[in-house]
Amino acid sequence: MQQEDARPLADRVLAFLPHQGSFEVQHDQPGKTHNWHMHSLSETLFVVNGELGLFWQSSGGVHRQTCGPNTRIDLPQRLLHGSTAGAQGAMYLILPEGGATAATTFLAPEDYPAE
Domain containing 103: what range? Predict the structure, then answer.
């Protein structure tokens, strides 16, 4: 994760556009959780407003970080992760690798990593 400068949203959207393809605008209500899942492609997220509680598994452990506005999040292909919107909700951009559509695989609750 990295904090970026606070350019106007129009500039951010133009910078986020892939050469060919599309990106998604995600608007989550407060407390909305996207449980453990992974994608077939790498993805980059950019938090526009609100807070996003990101959780992921790497090096055998579960990690958590709260990401606020102007945070860029790079998620490698097949990284097991999820997120929960903060108290004010969250709006963020999702750019799959190359602007293509990623296949998403959700884990069953009994397969969630132990914390």
Answer: 2-107
